[in-house]
Structure formats: C-alpha cells, structure tokens
Amino acid sequence: MSAADASHLLETKPVGKLLLQYSIPAIIGMTVTSLYNIIDSVFIGHGVGPLAISGLAITFPLMNLIIAFCTLIGVGGATISSIYMGQRDMEKTSSVLGNVFLLCVILGFCFGGIATLLLEPTLRFFGASEATMPYARDFMEVILLGNPIAFTFIGLNNLMRATGYPKKAMLSSLLTVFVNIILAPIFIFHFGWGIRGAAFATVIAQTSGLVWILAHFINKNSSVHFKAGIFRLKGRIIKSILSIGMSPFLMNVCASTVVIILNNSFMRYGGDLAIGAYGIVNRVLTLFIMIEIGLTQGMQPVVGYNYGALLFDRVRRVLRYAMITGISITTFGFITSQLFPDFIVGMFTDNHELTELAKFGLRITCLLFPLVGCQIIITNFFQSIGKAKVSIFLSLSRQLIFLIPFLLILPRFWGITGVWASLPMADFISFVMAVVTLFYFNKKGLLFKMNKQI
C-alpha cells in the first residue's frame, strides 16, 4: 500500500469500518501475546511448581518497566507518525522511523545492562524471598539478555501499525506467539530448563518477530521505509516522541510501583503463595486489558490522522465507537471472572491453597472492571490527539493518586481483603475522573484544538 492510498482510506472510509480494520489485527495480536504469557504461566505452574508462579509474579514490576520504555518510544513514535501522515509530511514520518529505531536500540542496551547489574537487590525490593528469588532471578537474567531485541521489536511494531500496516503488525505478534508456544514446553519439560527455558523461548520468539518487522521496513515498497539520511537523532522529533509517549510510560512506571507495593503487601498479609495468587489474577485481567490496548492501538492511527487532517467529526465518531466497544470488552471480563473462577484459576495450578487465594482475589478485583474499559479509552484518546499532559494526568490518577493510598490504608483494617479491595475502589474513582475530564474539555472547546508543539 502506498502512502497516498493509506492516507486516502484514513480520511474517506467510514470510521466504523476503519476502527475495525485497524483494531481487529491489533486486538488479535495483543490477545495472542497475552495468551502466550498465560500459557507460559500455565507451563511454569504445572511444570515447575506453585513457588515458580510466585517467582514469576515478583518479576512483574521489572517487566512493566521494560514495557514502559518500549511504549515511551513506540507509542510516542506511532502517534507522531500518524499525525505527520495526516499532514502529508512523509519526510518527517520517515525521520520518526529512523529516530524510533535508534532510540530503541540505545535504550534497550542501556536498560538491560543496568538492570542486570542491579538484578538481585532489585528483586528483593520487589518482594522476593529466599524461596522465590532463584525463580525470579533465573527468569530475568535471560529476559534482560534479549532486552535490545524486545525494545526494537515493540517500538517498530507500533510504527508499522501506525503507518498503514495493521495486519502485518498483527502477523508479527502472531509469529512471536507461535514460536514461543512451540519452544516453551520443549525447553521447560523436554530439556528440563525450568523457568529459564520459558525465558529463552520468549527471547527467541521476539527475535523472529523483529526479523519480520525489519524485512518490512527494508522493503522500499513500504509506505515508510529505511533509507539514507533518516538515522540521525533530531531534538524536535525526540521531544515530540517523548512528550506523547510519556503518558503510557508513566502509566507503566506507576503500574510497576503499584505491583511492588502489592507484592510486599501480599507477602506481609499472606506470604509467598498470596503473591502467586496475585500473579494468576494479574495474568487473567491483563488478558482483557491487552484486548483493550489492542483497541486503542487501532483507534490511534485513525484518530491521529483525522485529527491532523482537521476532520473532527470523524474523530468524534471514532471515540464514540471505541468507548462502546471498550466497555463491552471489560464487561465480558467481569462476567467471565465472576462465573468461572474455578476453571480460570485451575488452568494455572492444582495447588489447593493457591487456588483458593486466587479465586477469592479474582472475584474482588474485577468487581468494577466494566468501568476500566471506559477509562482506558478516554486516556488513550487524549494521547492520540497529542494532548499528552491530560493523558498523563488520567494515567496517573488511577495508580498513583488513588490506588497507592488505598493500598497503604485498607490492609491495615481488612488485611489481605483490603489489598484486593483497593483495586476496584481505585477503578471507580479514576473512571469518574476520566469522564469528568472529557466532558470539561469538550464543553470548553479544548478537545479539538491542535497542539502547536506537534
């Protein structure tokens, strides 16, 4: 598809069909990615043991930090490139590609090196005990070894989707999942590598996905591709990428902070298996959140392009359709978790104590889950139209402003139940905040006003 063809479709095709065209591949990709994380946990839970599930949960904050830096560059670059394409400035769009590639490689090596040097004290800070440390350390040593690959894969995959190739971006995710699902049981069960085998499978899978993406951007027939002159870091582009990407970056950093507090709270009030229970619950709810994120990834290029082209009526319709779909996704997650907790938790473990802890936590955590869908859509909508500060505020409201205080206060009165209850209470307040912010900006005429810094 040429750049002209992609641009024509983005500004003329019915927005409902565009949202489906861009979202469905992204949703499939994110869903399958989440599913292979779940399958990894299932293999680890049954092939290594319940404490390995707890050790894996200990690594979540560090994994969130990796994702935070990936989205800082990838989502920021994708949003900026969509807006530049809407303005028909292909030279700047190409420069974004070069800058995203360089930033991913540089940050990937720097983060991986520093995290490896500080790994053991970091994991202890995250809540690792003597029993869970070996599992957490073995897993992260391998993951950090492949960190530059993960950074570049995620960053360029976002850019591929934003520049008119949502199906290819989906296929790259499917490829990594396919490779991971094949290799993980072989490494864990046949070779006896345990949790380290799951990590090796993940790194090899991401490498295969990166090869696919690089082949796309090397191809001169792609609307945006590698070419001479784009591999120079430019201050204005970097500033725009970081400004837009700061919202999902801070959201993931806050998620990491929250998980650290959660892990330490669960350790204090329930022990290692309580951390494992949260690991299971987190995997399950993350599946639906990832579907939601897939929807926002599909929404982003459609909103970004039409916003850049000043087609605001189309932008409004995309927002409306996305909100309806987003709420439906998390409502389905709520119903499933409430009706089938035995089946869901049973996939991960056959340990009775861990099963009962996870079932109890799942039912409480998802009590107000339908509202989460609306909050995520609104937050990402502000990000897609370049209003980074608003998006950052809404991202922080749930985790930093509301959830952390609840986590520090409620367990003092309700113990482990208070830890679980903090999550739906924060969901409700952050939902109200997002809706009020959207109505305020719309009423004041600030919602559709171009950011001069873009």
UniProtKB/TrEMBL annotation:
Q: How does it sit in the membrane?
A: Multi-pass membrane protein
| TM spans (from-to) | 18-39, 51-84, 96-119, 139-159, 171-193, 199-219, 240-263, 275-297, 318-340, 360-378, 390-414, 420-441
What are the alphabetically sorted keywords of the record? Antibiotic resistance, Cell membrane, Membrane, Transmembrane, Transmembrane helix, Transport
Q: What Pfam families is this protein classified in?
A: MatE
Subcellular location(s): the record lists: Cell membrane
Which CDD domains does UniProt cross-reference here? MATE_MepA_like (cd13143)
PANTHER family, per database record: MULTIDRUG EXPORT PROTEIN MEPA, SPORULATION PROTEIN YKVU
Similarity field: Belongs to the multi antimicrobial extrusion (MATE) (TC 2.A.66.1) family. MepA subfamily.
The identity of this protein, by name, is Multidrug export protein MepA
Taxonomic source organism: Butyricimonas hominis
